[in-house]
């Protein structure tokens, strides 16, 4: 399994890190087999797997449940797990307790926290001191969707761009080992990536980020309806699954399935006919 030191080295060597989300046992197995460097058990599982409207409905037990399944499917991969909405905002003590639960239950390598508020910075430092590596998530932070007034690109004007650069430096200073940059202008992502020693992982950010992350279901078009601009679909599982399921339905209705090769026979010489 790669360690955080490998990711620092990769940044220095300009070798890209690949992160893909996984939410359950089969997706974790597939991602591990793909050669991706990291798995993210994102709180996007709320929308993708559970049909919630936003990540603000995701609970700590949702995260534990899914992260444990992912660990079982990917024993050799560096796993980052999202701290869900409001599990690290009530107090530093509450955040530490929740982080302990999630980190231990999931056997993850790091936890991810959105934003750079005073509380998050303090928690980043305290968790790092306690031995829990923190991945930061800046820019478009979905847990703050209601404060941002929608899923909007962040840091487009000079003032908010400069604030994001400061935030990125702060999370690094407080011990973050990596920083996800979501939904920010490419030149800003370039600037942050060169300003930081820790690797940046982009999503809707830029090519110069030290790595890229996409949501499993987005890149496979699996259960998704509309894709954001920053997603490139690499397959169309919706189509594949639709075709397979409707063919199965039709074949059963038309008594074309099961065929003889899908059925079992009695032992040699046994007959169920009345004598
Ligand atoms: O929850 C998630 O999938 C994420 C990524 C989009 C970075 O946080
Ligand atoms: Na997330």
Overall, the morphology is: elongated
- How many structural domains in the coordinates? 1
Helix tally equals 11
The fraction of residues in strands falls at 5-15%
For the biggest sheet, the summary is: 8 strands, parallel, barrel
Catalogue the ligands.
Answer: 3-methyl-2-oxobutanoic acid, sodium ion
Give the proportion of residues in helices.
40-55%
Mean pLDDT: 97
Order of helices and strands: HEHEHHEHEHEHHEHEEHH
What is the CATH architecture assignment?
Answer: Alpha-Beta Barrel
Computed CA radius of gyration, to the nearest angstrom: 22 Å
Q: Quote the distance from N terminus to C terminus.
A: 66 Å
Strand order of the largest sheet: 1-2-3-4-5-6-7-8
Low-confidence blocks of residues: none
| CATH topology title | TIM Barrel
SS content category: alpha/beta
CATH C-level: Alpha Beta
Pathway: Cofactor biosynthesis; (R)-pantothenate biosynthesis; (R)-pantoate from 3-methyl-2-oxobutanoate: step 1/2
Catalytic activity: (6R)-5,10-methylene-5,6,7,8-tetrahydrofolate + 3-methyl-2-oxobutanoate + H2O = 2-dehydropantoate + (6S)-5,6,7,8-tetrahydrofolate
Family: Belongs to the PanB family.
Function: Catalyzes the reversible reaction in which hydroxymethyl group from 5,10-methylenetetrahydrofolate is transferred onto alpha-ketoisovalerate to form ketopantoate.
